[in-house]
Amino acid sequence: MYHDYGSLTDADLAGLYAYPDGAVLRANMVTSADGAASVGGASAGLSSAADRHVFALLRTLADVILVGGNTARTEGYQPVRIRELWRHLRAGRAATPPIAVITSGRGLDASSPLFADPATIVLTTAHAAASVQVGAQVVAAGQDSVDIAAAVAALHDLGHQHILAEGGPGILGQLVTAGLVDELCLTIGPLLAGPGAPRIVTGSPGPAALPLSLAHLLDDNGFLLCRYRANR
Q1: What whole-number distance in Å separates Cα of residue 87 and Cα of residue 94?
Q2: Domains, the chain, ordered by start
Q3: Cβ-count burial of 226 within 10 angstroms (0-12 exposed, 13-18 middle, 19+ buried)?
Q4: What is the dihedral of CA 111, 69, 66, 102, to 10 degrees?
Q5: What are the tens digits of pLDDT across the range 205-215?
Q6: Is the pTM of this model over 0.90?
Q7: What secondary structure letter does DSSP report for 84?
Q8: Each residue of 91-126: pLDDT tens digit?
């Protein structure tokens, strides 16, 4: 369960993070030691070289990457590039996984390379879907607001069984509340961010807490890379 990150090969890491069979929604988040989801409004200040290496692996293993519109905008999301991935693990699949963005459609920048990419999936309301003019694929998942369960079901219908949710906290909160999270990969950075930053999960409380089991823990000079599985 516990591993010194520096002692692991890339093959070891690929084995530790391999998806189980069937449909799996895996969330990947980073936090400070005091629970902050960002520093200065972005998550980059909480990351490390090891976290970024595993981040690339998680994207490589996924069929699709799910993200909220606010996070896509704040973090400057772009279509995934082949050079960012562990290419040998994409054999037999599309060279890169598409990005699926949950958005109300308001404030969507149609000129962004992300939304000009035909591989990108825009998950929005039925009302917005009729008026959104982008190069990406537009899918209605809810009438007046995006239904998170319908959005995930739409991705399954498109053939994406292994979903990687990269946030932000509001989207993760909706996924937790809907009981859709199967795994959580969480990097804990050795940093006290102080008050003001959001937690990795925000929104309305769910019906009950979701118990987790620790599948493994990697230690990289104080950065803790955890993989949890939901207990259901």
Answers
A1: 11
A2: 2-7+25-106+153-230 (3.40.430.10)
A3: middle
A4: -100
A5: 777 789 999 99
A6: yes
A7: G
A8: 999 999 999 999 987 777 878 999 999 999 999 999
